[in-house]
Amino acid sequence: MKKITRGSSITSLVLATMMIAGCGSSGSTGNSQTSSQPEAAKSAAPAATTAAPAAADKAAKISWWGAWNEDQGPGDMIKEFNKKFPNIKVEYVKFANTDEGNVKVDTSLIAGQEMDVFFNYGVPRVEARAKKKLLQDLTEFISKDKFDVEAELGKEIYKQDGKYFGLPVSSLTDSVFINKKLLDEAGLPVPKSWSLDEYKEYAKKLTKGDGPARVYGTSDFHSLYYWTMPVRSVLGTNAWYNKDGASNFDYAGYKKALEFKFAMENVDKIQYPYTEIKSTKAQVFDLFMQKKTAMAVASNAISRFIGDTTQYPRDFITTVAPLPTLEKDQKQNLNNGLHYFGYLSMNPNTKEKEASWQFMKWLATEGSIHLAKVGHIPTWKKTNKDALVKVMFGEDADKKIDLEAFKRVVLDYDSVSYNDTIFTGYAELNKLLQDEAEKALFGVQKIDEALANMKKKSDEAIKNSK
């Protein structure tokens, strides 16, 4: 990956906040819990190709910071790690993956508090912290162990000046999850590829009922930035920016994507309306599992809900299709494949660097399968898909999920995907594209006005961030 030279406004925002914020307590994160599947994990995948250093035999104690409750999976991961490395004791600390929670991480790093290994959720977090030298350069550990990062984890991994400051141990995929029973009743096959127009036809045929009993054909994700995903299918990496570094919201695809969402929800009324999601704070996971929608655009985080038949008893299995493409005859869908999300990094001031590295390397490779317990997809190229599905859904996985479709679409380790490398004004752009689209969906402004405001304000945010 080329060196990233553009500055990040996120860095300035975080550091400005840190000047006035103390170490607040973590709020709750996550939703439904799933049970652990340790037996499946034992047969997860071949051992990592790198040998453990002799330093692993030395007694050490490290802390690991993440955004899940310990009993949602991290506790089991530590137990599995200690089966191989009993002399390295790991203490888990939870923080909220929110702006406030991440300020706590930053202030702890600057203040030199006890923190050894921690998650950065999203590349913008890694970039901001790396630029401020809050992350350990991993070069010496990678070189010493001859750890081939690209062979083990992939090529499009964030680097700064050619150096790694975190290992992408988990990924996210975005897909369309479908009630297979309703699909069969409508006489529709499971799509292996489709355009927005074809997706719309499915939604029409799957919509039925009225009032409280209405089943919408589909639902977009509850986070509003998902309306831009059809554009991602064409442009992929850095889709929010044009070749000159300004915002790209005057690209024709954005108008088509926003018009599509507006029509699906406010005209055809075959997609669960965002206005209702906003007013009730509903989540697409719940809407789908409660059969209020026949299809749902979601990340693989929905797997925690699909695997939970106690809280979500049901009479259907879930199948999966890729996100639809913007155009009908599109040659490539850049929404397919894995998108790096959970970067594991080391505090440069830790007193236990060898032990911290050993834990990081284990969780990035053979231990990564346990991340499925918290709904994340391991990035490790040698992940055993069959074992991974059992960890996610249990031994009776075939009664909950269409295994063939899930492995093909969600566990797609081969497709070319997108991973952004430009973050100038990134947080501001993310907020603007949601705020202006929301006004259009609520009828406060026309779509053309929303896009014009989006473009103008985003260009200003980019200019002010440089």
Notes on the protein architecture:
Mean pLDDT is 88; it is low at 1-54. This protein is globular. By secondary structure, it is an alpha+beta fold. The chain contains 19 helices and nine strands. The chain has helices at 9-18, 38-42, 74-84, 99-111, 123-131, 139-144, 149-153, 180-185, 196-206, 229-235, 252-267, 274-280, 284-289, 303-306, 353-364, 385-393, 403-409, 426-441, 447-465; strands at residues 60-66, 88-94, 117-121, 167-172, 174-179, 295-299, 318-322, 339-346, 377-378. The strands form two sheets. The chain has a six-stranded mixed beta sheet with strand order 2-1-3-8-4-9. Strands 6-5-7 form a three-stranded antiparallel beta sheet. It folds into two domains: 9-172 and 338-393, 3-Layer(aba) Sandwich (D-Maltodextrin-Binding Protein, domain 2), CATH 3.40.190.10; 174-335 and 419-465, D-Maltodextrin-Binding Protein, domain 2, CATH 3.40.190. This is Multiple sugar transport system substrate-binding protein.
Report the CATH C-level class of the largest domain: Alpha Beta
As a percent range, the share of helical residues equals 25-40%
- Oligomer category: single chain
Integer tally of domains: 2
- Beta strand count: 9
- Global outline: globular
Distance between the termini: 21 Å
Q: What is the CATH-assigned architecture of the largest domain?
A: 3-Layer(aba) Sandwich
Strand order of the largest sheet: 2-1-3-8-4-9
Main sheet attributes: strand count, strand direction, barrel closure = 6 strands, mixed
Number of helices: 19
Q: What is the residue-averaged pLDDT?
A: 88
Protein name: Multiple sugar transport system substrate-binding protein
Signal peptide: 1-23
Keywords: Signal, Sugar transport, Transport
Region (Disordered): 26-49
